[in-house]
Amino acid sequence: xxxxxxxxxxxxxxxxxxxxxxxxxxxxxxxxxxxxxxxxxxxxxxxxxxxxxxxxxxxxxxxxxxxxxxxxxxxxxxxxxxxxxxxxxxxxxxxxxxxxxxxxxxxxxxxxxxxxxxxxxxxxxxxxxxxxxxxxxxxxxxxxxxxxxxxxxxxxxxxxxxxxxxxxxxxxxxxxxxxxxxxxxxxxxxxxxxxxxxxxxxxxxxxxxxxxxxxxxxxxxxxxxxxxxxxxxxxxxxxxxxxxxxxxxxxxxx
Amino acid sequence: xxxxxxxxxxxxxxxxxxxxxxxxxxxxxxxxxxxxxxxxxxxxxxxxxxxxxxxxxxxxxxxxxxxxxxxxxxxxxxxxxxxxxxxxxxxxxxxxxxxxxxxxxxxxxxxxxxxxxxxxxxxxxxx
Lengths: 254, 127
What we know:
The complex is a heterodimer of chains A (254) and B (127).
Chain A: H1 4-29, H2 38-66, H3 71-76, H4 87-90, H5 96-117, H6 123-131, H7 133-151, H8 155-173, H9 182-187, H10 194-211, H11 235-248
Chain B: H1 8-12, E1 33-40, E2 48-55, H2 58-70, E3 77-82, H3 114-126
């Protein structure tokens, strides 16, 4: 369908975002049972499940249309260096302000990404993007409502949201790290391009956070490397925990 | 002494066996308000009250209601209403309803009209 170089770039693009969603879904599921209140515990856990579902959708495209291994093998049998998620998603959950701000910045990026993928010339991807549109819309609604609530709360909650933003923002910029041979994807109408997505994202969150009285750091430098398999010390322990049961017997039927 | 659990999430919290919150009592004003959640299955159906959520604001109530009451099965719309905005009768006044069950003439099922309807239909056919 595409030439080998374009196909390789397409696979990498799908893998990158699938890994983002899988790792963040796993991370956020660590709040299950520990959320700040019962209702939020259920909501955040449910959103974490959705993210793993989005990862599954992308791994399934890789498997069914592009000849890669099955989703379980892709998710559970790779080591740290073979994961291409942004470093943003591997950081521990921290306190709730950090997790919420990461969720806010990540899901706005995901919404912009999937909205453009819904128009992609690569039909399996466009189909998936249209399917998950509603889920991501709710994630963004959830994130916006929480960030607004706390940013406009009291002095302490506002200060904590601002410092969480300062901490998470450079990591979130890493979501838009340029992909290898990205130009081929743009030429084929498969992808809008990371820089273009980043600009849309920056405009959106700057306006929104400004409305909530928070200030996006101006001199932030993106923390890159995830797309090349460079990770912090936080990813491998997460993978060990996530894959522990699967590796006991990879052929087990569930 | 640190609590050891089989759940890695609990161990990551590095909790002390002694509970630091033991003597803390939540004051009344520290509780969130409750909101009544109304769930609509299909467009055009009535919204049905399905329960409550705790939330600090109207928008948060809607966010929570979605996951509490609409994450399974079919939903087309949700309402949330702050419980304080619900004007309710007092259970002490339940005696206003006490004789309702005797007023069968208000219940369509209280009328034995089927025989008459059947007889009428029959008479029409005969004509």
